[in-house]
Amino acid sequence: MGDRTASDAGALLQVARRLADEVLFERALDADAAGVVPHDNLDRLRDAGFYGLWAPREVGGCGFDELERLAIIEALAGGCLTTAFVWAQHGGGSAAAARTPPGSLLHDRWARALATGESRSGVAFAHVLRPEPCLFAERCGDGWSLRGVAPFVTGWGHIDAVLTAAHTADRLVWMLIPATEATTLASRRLRLAAVDSSVTVELHFDGHMVGDDHVVEVIGYGEWLAGYRLGLRTNGALMLGVTSRALALLGPSPLDAELDAARRALHAAEVDDMPECRAQVGYVGIRATSALVSSVGGRAITLGHHGQRLAREALFLVVQGQTAEIRSGHLRRLGAADSNR
Length: 341
Known about the structure:
This protein has helices spanning 3-34, 39-48, 66-79, 81-88, 90-99, 105-116, 221-230, 232-250, 255-268, 274-296, 306-319, 324-333, and strands at 121-124, 135-140, 143-153, 161-167, 171-178, 185-189, 201-211, 215-220. By secondary structure, it is of the alpha+beta class.
Protein backbone atom coordinates (compact mmCIF):
# COMPACT_ATOMS: atom_id res chain seq x y z
CA MET A 1 0.00 0.00 0.00
CA GLY A 2 1.53 3.26 -1.14
CA ASP A 3 1.51 6.56 0.71
CA ARG A 4 -1.08 8.05 -1.63
CA THR A 5 -3.54 5.25 -0.83
CA ALA A 6 -2.92 5.61 2.90
CA SER A 7 -3.47 9.35 2.68
CA ASP A 8 -6.67 8.90 0.69
CA ALA A 9 -7.98 6.33 3.15
CA GLY A 10 -7.27 8.62 6.10
CA ALA A 11 -8.99 11.54 4.42
CA LEU A 12 -12.06 9.49 3.57
CA LEU A 13 -12.19 8.18 7.13
CA GLN A 14 -12.35 11.75 8.41
CA VAL A 15 -15.19 12.47 5.97
CA ALA A 16 -16.99 9.35 7.22
CA ARG A 17 -16.69 10.44 10.85
CA ARG A 18 -17.99 13.94 10.10
CA LEU A 19 -20.86 12.61 8.04
CA ALA A 20 -21.73 10.08 10.74
CA ASP A 21 -21.68 12.64 13.57
CA GLU A 22 -23.18 15.65 11.84
CA VAL A 23 -25.75 14.08 9.50
CA LEU A 24 -26.41 10.36 9.91
CA PHE A 25 -26.61 10.25 13.71
CA GLU A 26 -28.87 13.28 13.79
CA ARG A 27 -31.25 11.52 11.39
CA ALA A 28 -30.89 7.98 12.75
CA LEU A 29 -34.07 7.87 14.84
CA ASP A 30 -36.12 9.21 11.95
CA ALA A 31 -34.52 6.73 9.55
CA ASP A 32 -35.24 3.90 11.98
CA ALA A 33 -38.93 4.80 12.12
CA ALA A 34 -39.49 5.84 8.52
CA GLY A 35 -39.96 2.40 7.00
CA VAL A 36 -37.46 3.15 4.25
CA VAL A 37 -33.92 4.48 4.37
CA PRO A 38 -33.80 8.13 3.24
CA HIS A 39 -32.59 8.49 -0.35
CA ASP A 40 -30.59 11.54 0.67
CA ASN A 41 -28.51 9.49 3.12
CA LEU A 42 -27.47 7.08 0.37
CA ASP A 43 -26.88 9.93 -2.06
CA ARG A 44 -24.53 11.59 0.42
CA LEU A 45 -22.53 8.37 0.68
CA ARG A 46 -22.37 8.22 -3.11
CA ASP A 47 -21.34 11.86 -3.48
CA ALA A 48 -18.54 11.39 -0.92
CA GLY A 49 -17.16 8.38 -2.83
CA PHE A 50 -18.06 5.64 -0.36
CA TYR A 51 -19.61 3.37 -2.97
CA GLY A 52 -16.12 2.87 -4.40
CA LEU A 53 -14.81 1.30 -1.22
CA TRP A 54 -14.70 -2.25 -2.63
CA ALA A 55 -13.47 -1.54 -6.17
CA PRO A 56 -9.99 -0.92 -7.61
CA ARG A 57 -8.91 2.42 -8.97
CA GLU A 58 -8.95 1.29 -12.58
CA VAL A 59 -12.75 1.13 -12.58
CA GLY A 60 -13.24 4.29 -10.53
CA GLY A 61 -13.04 2.79 -7.03
CA CYS A 62 -10.90 3.65 -4.03
CA GLY A 63 -8.47 0.74 -4.21
CA PHE A 64 -8.45 0.34 -0.43
CA ASP A 65 -7.49 -2.80 1.44
CA GLU A 66 -9.67 -4.56 4.00
CA LEU A 67 -8.35 -2.81 7.11
CA GLU A 68 -8.80 0.61 5.51
CA ARG A 69 -12.40 -0.28 4.74
CA LEU A 70 -13.09 -1.52 8.29
CA ALA A 71 -12.53 1.83 9.97
CA ILE A 72 -14.82 3.59 7.48
CA ILE A 73 -17.56 0.98 7.86
CA GLU A 74 -17.34 1.29 11.65
CA ALA A 75 -17.62 5.07 11.49
CA LEU A 76 -20.69 5.07 9.24
CA ALA A 77 -22.40 2.31 11.24
CA GLY A 78 -21.97 4.45 14.33
CA GLY A 79 -23.92 7.20 12.61
CA CYS A 80 -26.90 5.26 11.31
CA LEU A 81 -26.81 1.48 11.06
CA THR A 82 -29.84 1.38 8.77
CA THR A 83 -28.06 3.54 6.19
CA ALA A 84 -24.72 1.81 6.64
CA PHE A 85 -26.24 -1.66 6.39
CA VAL A 86 -28.00 -0.94 3.09
CA TRP A 87 -24.80 0.63 1.74
CA ALA A 88 -22.54 -2.20 2.94
CA GLN A 89 -24.51 -4.78 0.93
CA HIS A 90 -23.19 -3.00 -2.15
CA GLY A 91 -19.69 -4.34 -1.59
CA GLY A 92 -20.27 -7.87 -2.85
CA GLY A 93 -21.72 -6.86 -6.20
CA SER A 94 -19.21 -4.07 -6.76
CA ALA A 95 -16.22 -6.29 -6.06
CA ALA A 96 -17.66 -9.09 -8.20
CA ALA A 97 -18.24 -6.82 -11.19
CA ALA A 98 -14.72 -5.40 -10.92
CA ARG A 99 -13.27 -8.95 -11.09
CA THR A 100 -14.98 -9.81 -14.36
CA PRO A 101 -12.98 -9.51 -17.63
CA PRO A 102 -12.98 -6.12 -19.37
CA GLY A 103 -15.17 -6.32 -22.44
CA SER A 104 -17.65 -8.70 -20.81
CA LEU A 105 -21.25 -7.59 -20.29
CA LEU A 106 -20.90 -7.66 -16.52
CA HIS A 107 -17.74 -5.58 -16.51
CA ASP A 108 -18.91 -3.04 -19.05
CA ARG A 109 -22.40 -2.64 -17.59
CA TRP A 110 -21.64 -2.75 -13.88
CA ALA A 111 -17.98 -2.38 -12.84
CA ARG A 112 -17.61 1.40 -13.14
CA ALA A 113 -21.28 2.16 -12.48
CA LEU A 114 -21.13 0.33 -9.15
CA ALA A 115 -17.72 1.72 -8.20
CA THR A 116 -18.98 5.28 -8.60
CA GLY A 117 -22.39 4.70 -7.05
CA GLU A 118 -24.14 5.58 -10.30
CA SER A 119 -25.73 2.15 -9.79
CA ARG A 120 -26.16 0.29 -6.51
CA SER A 121 -26.18 -3.38 -5.69
CA GLY A 122 -27.28 -5.80 -3.00
CA VAL A 123 -26.67 -9.45 -2.22
CA ALA A 124 -28.76 -12.62 -2.06
CA PHE A 125 -26.66 -15.35 -0.52
CA ALA A 126 -27.47 -15.59 3.21
CA HIS A 127 -29.30 -18.82 2.38
CA VAL A 128 -26.09 -20.51 1.20
CA LEU A 129 -25.07 -21.12 4.82
CA ARG A 130 -28.30 -22.94 5.64
CA PRO A 131 -28.07 -26.73 6.02
CA GLU A 132 -30.86 -27.23 3.46
CA PRO A 133 -30.49 -25.42 0.10
CA CYS A 134 -33.46 -23.27 -0.84
CA LEU A 135 -32.43 -21.61 -4.14
CA PHE A 136 -31.45 -23.78 -7.09
CA ALA A 137 -29.93 -23.16 -10.52
CA GLU A 138 -30.62 -25.56 -13.38
CA ARG A 139 -28.76 -25.43 -16.66
CA CYS A 140 -31.12 -24.34 -19.43
CA GLY A 141 -29.87 -23.52 -22.95
CA ASP A 142 -27.42 -20.61 -22.82
CA GLY A 143 -28.12 -19.84 -19.21
CA TRP A 144 -29.66 -20.93 -15.95
CA SER A 145 -33.16 -21.28 -14.58
CA LEU A 146 -33.51 -20.19 -10.95
CA ARG A 147 -36.14 -21.70 -8.71
CA GLY A 148 -36.66 -21.26 -4.98
CA VAL A 149 -36.26 -18.57 -2.35
CA ALA A 150 -33.57 -16.10 -1.29
CA PRO A 151 -34.79 -15.29 2.23
CA PHE A 152 -32.89 -12.08 3.06
CA VAL A 153 -32.18 -9.40 0.43
CA THR A 154 -31.59 -5.90 1.77
CA GLY A 155 -32.19 -2.54 0.11
CA TRP A 156 -34.93 -3.63 -2.29
CA GLY A 157 -36.13 -0.57 -4.18
CA HIS A 158 -32.75 1.12 -3.66
CA ILE A 159 -30.62 -1.32 -5.66
CA ASP A 160 -30.18 -1.88 -9.38
CA ALA A 161 -28.45 -5.27 -9.28
CA VAL A 162 -28.24 -8.16 -6.87
CA LEU A 163 -25.36 -10.61 -6.50
CA THR A 164 -27.16 -13.93 -6.22
CA ALA A 165 -25.92 -17.42 -5.36
CA ALA A 166 -27.82 -20.59 -6.22
CA HIS A 167 -27.04 -24.28 -5.76
CA THR A 168 -26.43 -26.77 -8.53
CA ALA A 169 -25.84 -30.43 -7.71
CA ASP A 170 -22.34 -29.83 -6.34
CA ARG A 171 -21.45 -26.18 -6.92
CA LEU A 172 -22.64 -22.61 -6.49
CA VAL A 173 -23.55 -20.38 -9.41
CA TRP A 174 -22.93 -16.69 -8.69
CA MET A 175 -24.80 -14.21 -10.85
CA LEU A 176 -25.16 -10.44 -10.95
CA ILE A 177 -28.72 -9.88 -12.09
CA PRO A 178 -30.99 -6.84 -12.42
CA ALA A 179 -32.95 -6.15 -9.23
CA THR A 180 -36.21 -5.96 -11.13
CA GLU A 181 -39.39 -7.84 -10.37
CA ALA A 182 -40.96 -9.95 -13.11
CA THR A 183 -43.51 -12.71 -13.52
CA THR A 184 -40.71 -15.11 -12.49
CA LEU A 185 -39.21 -12.95 -9.73
CA ALA A 186 -41.29 -11.56 -6.87
CA SER A 187 -40.47 -9.99 -3.52
CA ARG A 188 -42.15 -10.22 -0.14
CA ARG A 189 -41.16 -7.64 2.43
CA LEU A 190 -39.96 -8.84 5.83
CA ARG A 191 -40.63 -6.82 8.98
CA LEU A 192 -37.57 -6.62 11.19
CA ALA A 193 -37.20 -5.63 14.84
CA ALA A 194 -34.21 -3.46 13.90
CA VAL A 195 -33.06 -1.78 10.67
CA ASP A 196 -36.55 -2.37 9.30
CA SER A 197 -36.13 0.68 7.06
CA SER A 198 -33.46 -1.26 5.17
CA VAL A 199 -36.40 -2.79 3.22
CA THR A 200 -35.27 -6.39 3.49
CA VAL A 201 -37.26 -8.80 1.35
CA GLU A 202 -37.65 -12.47 0.57
CA LEU A 203 -37.15 -13.08 -3.16
CA HIS A 204 -39.11 -15.84 -4.87
CA PHE A 205 -37.74 -17.26 -8.12
CA ASP A 206 -40.05 -19.31 -10.34
CA GLY A 207 -38.05 -20.44 -13.36
CA HIS A 208 -36.31 -17.06 -13.59
CA MET A 209 -33.91 -17.15 -16.54
CA VAL A 210 -30.39 -15.75 -16.23
CA GLY A 211 -28.05 -15.77 -19.21
CA ASP A 212 -24.46 -16.96 -19.05
CA ASP A 213 -23.33 -13.37 -19.60
CA HIS A 214 -24.64 -12.55 -16.10
CA VAL A 215 -22.66 -15.31 -14.39
CA VAL A 216 -19.72 -14.15 -12.28
CA GLU A 217 -18.42 -17.64 -11.50
CA VAL A 218 -19.34 -21.24 -10.82
CA ILE A 219 -17.45 -22.49 -7.78
CA GLY A 220 -17.37 -25.43 -5.38
CA TYR A 221 -19.05 -24.85 -2.03
CA GLY A 222 -15.91 -25.59 -0.02
CA GLU A 223 -13.81 -23.18 -2.04
CA TRP A 224 -16.43 -20.46 -1.64
CA LEU A 225 -16.74 -21.08 2.11
CA ALA A 226 -13.00 -20.62 2.60
CA GLY A 227 -13.25 -17.18 1.03
CA TYR A 228 -16.40 -16.32 2.95
CA ARG A 229 -14.69 -17.03 6.27
CA LEU A 230 -12.14 -14.36 5.39
CA GLY A 231 -14.97 -11.85 5.04
CA LEU A 232 -16.30 -12.37 8.57
CA ARG A 233 -14.09 -9.52 9.75
CA THR A 234 -16.07 -6.95 7.77
CA ASN A 235 -19.42 -7.78 9.36
CA GLY A 236 -17.80 -7.22 12.75
CA ALA A 237 -17.10 -3.60 11.84
CA LEU A 238 -20.83 -2.86 11.90
CA MET A 239 -21.07 -3.99 15.52
CA LEU A 240 -17.95 -1.98 16.36
CA GLY A 241 -19.73 1.12 15.07
CA VAL A 242 -22.94 0.56 17.04
CA THR A 243 -20.93 -0.22 20.18
CA SER A 244 -18.71 2.83 19.79
CA ARG A 245 -21.75 5.08 19.56
CA ALA A 246 -23.37 3.49 22.61
CA LEU A 247 -20.21 3.95 24.66
CA ALA A 248 -19.87 7.56 23.54
CA LEU A 249 -23.38 8.19 24.86
CA LEU A 250 -22.74 6.19 28.02
CA GLY A 251 -19.59 8.05 29.00
CA PRO A 252 -16.26 6.65 30.27
CA SER A 253 -16.47 3.07 31.52
CA PRO A 254 -14.36 -0.13 31.63
CA LEU A 255 -16.18 -1.20 28.46
CA ASP A 256 -14.11 1.34 26.50
CA ALA A 257 -10.97 -0.73 27.04
CA GLU A 258 -12.85 -3.94 26.25
CA LEU A 259 -14.02 -2.50 22.96
CA ASP A 260 -10.51 -1.34 22.04
CA ALA A 261 -9.14 -4.82 22.78
CA ALA A 262 -11.90 -6.51 20.78
CA ARG A 263 -11.29 -4.19 17.84
CA ARG A 264 -7.54 -4.83 17.83
CA ALA A 265 -8.09 -8.59 18.02
CA LEU A 266 -10.60 -8.54 15.17
CA HIS A 267 -8.33 -6.47 12.94
CA ALA A 268 -5.35 -8.75 13.59
CA ALA A 269 -7.18 -12.10 13.50
CA GLU A 270 -6.18 -14.94 11.22
CA VAL A 271 -9.05 -16.73 9.54
CA ASP A 272 -9.33 -19.49 12.15
CA ASP A 273 -9.48 -16.92 14.96
CA MET A 274 -12.17 -14.82 13.28
CA PRO A 275 -15.28 -16.51 14.75
CA GLU A 276 -14.07 -16.07 18.33
CA CYS A 277 -13.11 -12.47 17.65
CA ARG A 278 -16.51 -11.79 16.10
CA ALA A 279 -18.21 -13.37 19.11
CA GLN A 280 -16.22 -11.13 21.46
CA VAL A 281 -17.16 -8.02 19.50
CA GLY A 282 -20.80 -9.09 19.71
CA TYR A 283 -20.53 -9.72 23.45
CA VAL A 284 -19.13 -6.25 24.11
CA GLY A 285 -21.82 -4.74 21.87
CA ILE A 286 -24.69 -6.39 23.73
CA ARG A 287 -23.30 -5.32 27.09
CA ALA A 288 -22.52 -1.77 25.97
CA THR A 289 -25.97 -1.12 24.55
CA SER A 290 -27.62 -2.72 27.59
CA ALA A 291 -25.49 -0.54 29.86
CA LEU A 292 -26.59 2.56 27.98
CA VAL A 293 -30.27 1.68 28.38
CA SER A 294 -29.76 0.93 32.08
CA SER A 295 -27.89 4.17 32.72
CA VAL A 296 -30.56 6.31 31.09
CA GLY A 297 -33.56 4.57 32.60
CA GLY A 298 -37.12 4.75 31.32
CA ARG A 299 -36.41 7.39 28.67
CA ALA A 300 -34.09 4.94 26.92
CA ILE A 301 -36.94 2.67 25.89
CA THR A 302 -39.00 5.43 24.30
CA LEU A 303 -38.87 5.61 20.51
CA GLY A 304 -37.34 9.07 20.74
CA HIS A 305 -34.17 7.85 22.45
CA HIS A 306 -31.12 6.31 20.81
CA GLY A 307 -30.68 3.76 23.61
CA GLN A 308 -33.46 1.44 22.49
CA ARG A 309 -32.44 1.83 18.83
CA LEU A 310 -28.82 0.88 19.50
CA ALA A 311 -29.85 -2.05 21.73
CA ARG A 312 -32.12 -3.43 19.00
CA GLU A 313 -29.41 -2.94 16.42
CA ALA A 314 -26.88 -4.81 18.55
CA LEU A 315 -29.29 -7.75 18.80
CA PHE A 316 -29.72 -7.66 15.03
CA LEU A 317 -25.96 -7.71 14.48
CA VAL A 318 -25.50 -10.68 16.80
CA VAL A 319 -27.24 -12.82 14.16
CA GLN A 320 -26.28 -10.93 11.01
CA GLY A 321 -23.41 -12.65 9.24
CA GLN A 322 -23.49 -15.37 11.89
CA THR A 323 -21.96 -18.81 11.44
CA ALA A 324 -22.28 -21.86 13.69
CA GLU A 325 -18.86 -21.07 15.15
CA ILE A 326 -19.80 -17.48 15.94
CA ARG A 327 -23.11 -18.59 17.46
CA SER A 328 -21.26 -21.03 19.70
CA GLY A 329 -18.93 -18.24 20.84
CA HIS A 330 -21.86 -15.96 21.66
CA LEU A 331 -23.65 -18.64 23.65
CA ARG A 332 -20.55 -19.49 25.69
CA ARG A 333 -20.01 -15.86 26.59
CA LEU A 334 -23.65 -15.45 27.53
CA GLY A 335 -23.52 -18.49 29.77
CA ALA A 336 -25.90 -20.52 27.58
CA ALA A 337 -23.41 -23.16 26.46
CA ASP A 338 -20.61 -25.23 27.93
CA SER A 339 -17.48 -23.05 28.10
CA ASN A 340 -15.32 -26.10 27.38
CA ARG A 341 -16.89 -26.69 23.97
